[in-house]
Design a protein that fits this description.
Strand content: 5-15%
Radius of gyration: 26 Å
CATH class of the largest domain: Mainly Alpha
Number of domains: 2
Mean pLDDT: 83
Shape: rod-shaped
Oligomer: single chain
Helix content: 55-70%
């Protein structure tokens, strides 16, 4: 558990996976695990469903960029580089006083 912000508790990826595995691999009842961890059983059921569909890729938290976010960041950088190159091309293609370009 990372700590509380406002009235909601935030739990890290390892905590969630461990809680789910206590139910799926440990054979314990979800309601008992939830009670022992101090979370609502519905929260544990939600984590269990997410883990079942996404596996180890579930529970991406702060600081973990998804593939789409990473690609968007690369696109922004590439677009900025392209704009710089366009400006440089405009500067270097201007004719000089003697009629030739640089």
């Amino acid at each position: 558990m990372e700590g509380e912000t406002g009235k909601y508790k935030r739990f890290d990826k390892n905590f969630k996976i461990s809680a789910v595995k206590m139910v799926t691999e440990g054979g314990e009842k979800a309601s008992e695990v939830a009670r022992s961890l101090g979370i609502h059983p519905n929260q544990l059921y939600s984590w269990k469903a997410k883990y079942a569909t996404q596996g180890e890729k579930a529970f991406v938290g702060k600081g973990n960029l998804t593939e789409m976010a990473t690609l968007r960041k690369k696109l922004r950088i590439t677009e900025m580089e392209l704009e710089i190159l366009k400006k440089a091309l405009g500067i270097f293609s201007k004719p000089t006083e003697n009629g030739s370009s640089l």
